[in-house]
Design brief:
Strand content: 5-15%
CATH superfamily of the largest domain: Type I PLP-dependent aspartate aminotransferase-like (Major domain)
Order of helices and strands: HHEHEHEHEHEEEEEHHHEEEHEHEH
CATH architecture of the largest domain: 3-Layer(aba) Sandwich
CATH topology of the largest domain: Aspartate Aminotransferase, domain 2
Helix content: 25-40%
Structural class: alpha/beta
Largest sheet: 7 strands, mixed
Number of domains: 2
Distance between the termini: 28 Å
Low-confidence stretches: none
CATH class of the largest domain: Alpha Beta
Mean pLDDT: 96
Shape: globular
Number of helices: 12
Oligomer: single chain
Radius of gyration: 22 Å
Strand order of the largest sheet: 1-9-8-5-4-2-3
């Protein structure tokens, strides 16, 4: 009998009871706005910022409405000018170049390597060609490049690094937490990230001037003294009357949901690694299927899994996806001609100037992606691995298919 997987690739764990209780308390108070506090009360959002700063070791933290807002806020706080080039990974998700374009910048895409990280040779060439001073480094799908080498290169080039840590909250390179290498880091608390409030974002930095501008940009209405993880009041003096309000504050309801989840992050990272390693073990040495090498220096968060089908035709990949979906395994493909759900790529983003990235084109043409929610068990990952392996063998070694379309999984 053919094995079928019956799990749900989009089902998250419930919010902890402590978060539900805290959220109900906020709702009963009616004080959802972060600056709306009773006498002697500290807002949930201010406490969350303080706790995340402590967790990451950052001097300052700002909680905002989404990860995408965090990226745009960081660019504005770094005084991005209209039309200014901003370097970023060609392999990323749409909110990253979207934030650059929305803030008035010009996305300049950098090639991806076979290990799904930014190509440092291409980065150096394009930084020099465009005279860029900013790199929005997307740790896409939780893959960290050699951060020691990258920072040495960017320091030499005079390029400031904004780390997009949407997929690396809890990750590290050589023991240094992801987000602690660049001048500022941005995180997401969207439902499929590592802590969940539906939407939400953080900025962290040790740069007082940058974070003062970010707090004002988020819409502090001169109430920045109510923050506990922000720069001191004197850091705001030079910028408080000239920084525009681009409101994007986090509210107390979402902060209440998130605070208990911070305590669970380390345990979640360990559970994700167990799931990732189980699936990886099931796919090792599958003919025609290439796994992504994880460097020893990298502590990663395995909330998703990627593999490549190098040199497979689009029709063969479409048939493989179709057969996996029929057996309950939902895979996404970054090589599809049209964007499907989140699997859009750089040539789909027509607000950015057309760019030639042949190495990225070749790699994304065979790149497959799947989520690993913590509602899965290691046994679930064993089943998923067996199904993917069986279908990769059947399709990869079968005749060339004709007229097959990939399933449009949302």
């Amino acid at each position: 009998m053919t094995e079928v997987f019956t799990g749900n690739f989009t089902q998250q764990e419930p919010i902890p009871e402590e978060g539900i209780t805290a959220a109900l308390a906020v709702l009963r108070s009616g004080r959802l706005h972060r600056y709306n506090t009773a006498a002697g009360e500290v807002a949930e959002t201010a406490l969350l910022e303080e706790e995340f700063a402590d967790l990451t070791g950052a001097n300052y933290c700002l909680a905002v409405a989404s990860g995408g807002y965090a990226l745009g806020c960081a660019l504005r706080a770094l005084d991005l000018q209209a039309g200014e080039p901003v370097l970023t990974n060609a392999f990323t998700l749409a909110p990253v170049p979207g934030a650059i374009a929305a803030a008035g910048g010009r996305p300049i895409f950098i090639e991806v390597t076979e290990n799904l990280v930014i190509d440092l040779g291409d980065l150096e060439a394009k930084a020099q060609a465009h005279g860029a001073r900013l790199l929005m480094l997307s740790h896409m799908r939780g893959h960290l490049c050699d951060m020691t080498e990258l920072m040495a290169l960017c320091d030499r080039l005079g390029v400031q690094v904004i780390e997009d840590c949407a997929h690396t909250m809890g990750a590290a390179w050589n023991g240094v937490a992801s987000g602690r290498h660049g001048v500022v880091a941005c995180y997401s608390m969207q439902t499929y990230k590592h802590i969940n409030s539906g939407e939400g974002g953080f900025l962290i930095s040790d740069d007082a001037a940058l974070m003062a501008r970010a707090v004002l940009l988020s819409g502090s209405y001169m109430l920045y003294a109510k923050h506990r993880a922000a720069p001191p009041p004197e850091a705001f003096e030079a910028v408080r009357m000239v920084t525009p309000n681009v409101s994007g504050r986090m509210d107390n309801l979402r902060a209440a949901i998130l605070r208990p989840q911070l305590k669970l992050l380390g345990e979640r990272v360990a559970r994700w690694e167990a799931l990732y390693r189980m699936l990886e073990a099931g796919l090792v040495a599958t003919p025609g299927l290439a796994l992504v090498e994880r460097p020893e220096a990298e502590t990663f968060v395995g909330s998703s899994f990627q593999f490549r089908l190098p040199d497979w035709s689009p029709a063969r990949i479409a048939l493989f996806l179709q057969r996996c979906v029929a057996r309950g395994v939902e895979l996404k493909w970054f090589g599809a001609a049209e964007p499907v759900a989140f699997t859009s790529r750089y040539d789909h983003w027509h607000y950015a100037e057309a760019q030639s990235l042949p190495q990225t084109d070749r790699i994304l043409a065979g790149l497959i992606d799947l989520r690993l929610p913590l509602t899965f068990t290691p046994q679930d990952c064993e089943i998923i691995g067996r199904i993917i392996r069986a279908e990769a063998l059947a399709v990869g070694q079968g005749p060339e298919p004709e007229g097959v379309s990939a399933p449009a999984i949302q």
